[in-house]
Amino acid sequence: MLQNWLKIAFINYKKNWLSTIINLFGLTIGLTGFMLILMHWNDEESYERWNPKKDDIYYFQTHYKKDNSYGGAISIPLAENALKRISEVQDYALMSGTDISYKMITKNKTAYQEGGSAVSENFFNLFPFKLVAGSYKDVLKNDNNIAISNVVAKNLFGKTHVAGETIKINTTDYIVTAVYELPKGNSQIKPDFIFKPVEQMKNDKESWGNFNYGCFFLLKKGADPRSFEKKFLDIIMMRAKISKDAGMTPQQFIDTYGPTDSLLTPLERIKLHSEMTWFGKPDFKSLMILFTLSVLIVILSAINFINLKTAQASQRAKEIGVRKAIGSTKSNLVLQFLLETFLICFVSYLLSLALTELLLPSLNKFYDKEIVMNDWHVYFYSFAMVALVTVVSGLIPALYLSNFKAIETLKGNFARSKNGVWLRNGILTLQLIISSFFIIGGLIVNQQVKHMMNKDLGFNGNQVFQINFNEDNNGKPWLKYERLRTEMAKIPGVESISFAEAPPGTNNQSSSNMDYLNTSIQARHGSMDYNYPQFMGVKLLKGRWLNPKLSSDTINNALVNEAFLRKFGWTDEQAMKREIRPGFDNKAYHIIGITKDFNIRNLKSEVEPMIFFHYRETSWKRYNVGNIQLKLKADDIEGTVKRIKTYWQNSVEQGYPFNSYFIDKQFAKTFETYQKQQTLFTILNAMVLMVALLGLFALSSLMIEQKLKDVAIKKTLGASDGVLVVGLTKQFLWITLIAVLISIPISYYLMNEWLKDFAYRIDMPVFPFILSMILLLTLTFAVVSIKAYQATKVNLVKYLKYE
């Protein structure tokens, strides 16, 4: 029996070769998209699985009720008191810097090493990398201890067993206490060398408000993280009680400055499911959108399969009648048709595996990953999807075909049944609704990305060339900058020079509370040179710029932006009379100028309140001077860059890489995420339209074929080809129009939710909705009219011989 079913299946595949190819193509495309996105998702979920203590390690985040925002940092006193006072805590580790770079000197070699991390002493208690040499006991106990990876050890010493060896960094000799091997699996925590930020931690040890560290807590076995969060409220209250702010109760202090609560996220989930981490904010929402869209494509492919299989009903009706007449049961027929469906689905699955392997390098390049097809979850879930598609797309046509009555089909009356018309029309409507949504969504995404790229940023980064330098001048980097500013002004092609701690396209700027009387806001702050706003083309709205001739401009004068005023609710005139007390200093700052808002971070976020001041104004800020920016003359930019590079490598930092970039290109990188979303949406849009048009072709074939007898009668009575084509396409055009009208409110709601994530967004445009309607009506008419015109050439004798 099985052999007979297979023969019948292959005969029908060959007979209906076009629909077979359409089925294979649609399902292969759908399954390929599903597998690629699934592999991307699995890869994102696989971070930190290497850690044997992962089930008990949690990342700490703060919550601020006033702004309903989350922070990814902690202060040392908060972490230490959590260890002392919360019974669930076994240990913790702090991280104050990642991707740190130093020139390292050994007795054998000098090399510039990147990828370092500054951590607390007990880091390895939570992250037990495989030990190659040395010991983790007291590994960072002394101020000059350092641990390095086996790769760094080979690079510096030519071997891995180098515990006890000396590495000179700047003027300090560090002793290698341990050599470790980094995990092979995905991890956000893969430092090439590890040291303790001694001076920083000494300065922050008693500073409850210096949130300068990412924190991981190791809880005891079976401990409830929610219990930790409740008990941490007592430690927050401790901070409030020891505050020296007069006139505030502890609760008022917490409500004003925060944090008001805490959140622990399991180590394995921080890459995608945390609110905020030391490594940035996850974007799980975008991943879920992509996955949902890939599933929709598979669903559309399955719907096409249903339509095409049902469209073949008229060709197989007599076969079914004969099989029923000789004793075949309905269940046998259903199993036969399910087998035929499974064979197509299985071949599509094999083709999709090959296509996925072919497209995987492009996906890796697109996301900067190294995914390989070795995860059994991908095979399991994709095959489960194949099984589901087989059942869904095979069962409906199987039941439809097996319900044919033997007598009617043998008499040729099978086409008169109207069973399933509403279902098929509903399926077509669903396809067109999804297609309309993709067209509308794709156009809106495209307009939003263009809007961000064309928006006035409030600064001009053209021809501004930034060089990041390393600390020297006996640990006084601002003196190095001032020397370079004088010397590099002599290089031909350099127009002007400046510095900013927080240049556009970076996240270098810190935030702190800004207090005025009983009001406090959070604001970003960045030190700079006197001329930096003018250097970047920022506009002054009120007051004056910083002036190098006025000593007060290096003592307590500052500029603020419009957002700063909005947050306080001040007018320009009020702001110019105010003195504010920033949390980063112990003196009051006088506002002398107000700048127009300019965007430093990215265009998804609203411009935040910011305060700008000279780098000598705050004692510790001068230590953050780490770059020099040069505006180049337009006539010979390439030649000027070469001269700058030659000077730098010969006279400034020999043995260090030339770490430089143009500001406008650096800021353009903040658009990459949205440009990738635009590209993916365009690709998925094309796939959905292709699959939907195949579905439209399938259903039009079915319904027009069922009407061939009516066409033959009308043609016999004298109807013209044009009248017949209009009559056959009219129903599909009405279905398309209804589908678009249904999709409009759905698309409006979903795309408006997507746009809410952008501080600078377009108003909901009308054009995409109109274009979607015109485009789908045009495509529907084009696809259906072809089949309708073929129907006008029907053989009259064939369809009238039973009448």
UniProtKB/TrEMBL annotation:
Membrane topology (UniProt): Multi-pass membrane protein
Key words of the record: Cell membrane, Membrane, Transmembrane, Transmembrane helix
Pfam families to which the protein is assigned, alphabetical: FtsX, MacB_PCD
Domain of life from the UniProt record: Bacteria
Protein name in the entry: ABC transporter permease
GO CC terms in record: plasma membrane
Organism classification: Bacteria, Pseudomonadati, Bacteroidota, Flavobacteriia, Flavobacteriales
GO MF, one example: transmembrane transporter activity
Subcellular location: Cell membrane
